[in-house]
Write a structure and sequence with these properties.
globular; three-stranded antiparallel beta sheet; seven-stranded mixed beta sheet; alpha+beta
Length: about 450
Amino acid sequence: MFGRKLIAATTMASALVLGLGGANAETLRFWTIEEQPERLAKQEEMAAAFKEKTGIDVDVIPVTEKDLGTRATAAFAAGDLPDVIYHTLQYVGPWSEAGILDTEAAADVMEALGTDTFAPGAVNMSTVDGEVASVPSDGWTQMIVYRKDLFEENGLEAPTTYAAIEAAVEKLHNPPEMFGFVAATKIDENFMSQVLEHVLLANGITPVGPDGFLPLDETKTVEALEFYKTIADASPPGDLFWKQSREVYFAGKAAMIIWSPFILDELAGLRDSAPPTINDDPTSAALAGMTGVVTTFSGPSNPDGAAWGDIRYFGITNDADTDAAMEFVKFSMDEGYLTTLSIAPEGKFPIRRGNADDATKFVKGWAELPVGVDRKAPLGELYDEVTINSIVEGLETASRWGVEEGQLSLASKIINSQILNRLVREFIDGERDAKATVAALNEQLAEIQ
């Protein structure tokens, strides 16, 4: 099961060309965490197209995301894993180490599709011990959402660095008419944890190394803390999280916020439950036209910058009908890829940019997929080409604490402890200076096992 499957895969592919591939193959079982009815329908559509091409049936089985880990562990113990699992980042390392994933099959799929057609950051986040463990399918990156019109009117650079953001805050902050930023400051909200990780990643800061906890670099962390205080001081008062960020920006009273891409359709007036209030028309796309996005930004100690990414994967299991499973994953990432992305285009950026014939085929196709809830329109009609490219470019540098170091579990415990949120908020509120805050962080985070 752990040997290379190149010969078998080639044989399988040849059989498929002859239209014989599915003749003896048993039905593939495909677990997916995309269980909402509309999203299941899209996956059934892809499974039907795959059967039409190959003759191989695919049973699409919804699994609630919070139950996926226990379900997979139990199925592995019983020797009854599905053939393919659509899964989240947190399982790549543990499932690879446990033997749940057939990493060699994943590597073969990547080789067949062309690893260079995938976004490098997403590939790095899929790699365990130098080899891709699961095929990266799609993902999203956190974004700095900003008033592009105001930046252009005032001759400001796009907010791609700490310095550019600070310059924009100084120029545009004019409360209560306009706040320079809406920073996350509510310490018991995961939103603040996510934003802080992004800000610290941007300056090359991580609390984990290959051997476990890694003390935060004082110089880099002081820079990040002082930057965060700048944007917090330019925010409305109170305990702020995603709700206020969106409301203030939608009202036309914020120059910049940090948000997920799920704001993109709302910005364009396509969701009645979260309408823009910048003018009298809740269905107006005016604010979308004024908006730019940045996914990768940098601090002074990390010129290359980073993006906070959330990646999803097609994992081929060690109980799989391997050849057929590989063909299904390849199909899902090639002929069926736009169907894969169409499940929720605003949150499924194309990790595979294109193919050998057209290096940007899937990016262009993705931009034409309709988004929205109460009304629908393609992202490419709502945002210009520069913005579309900015949205997907974050996957080039996508990262998360602990992934590269094999310490995602420890990093998650550090984040979930909310120690970082609490101590940063105390620093913002003036309870201690930046250096003392770094020392307190290192002391308290070191206790997490």
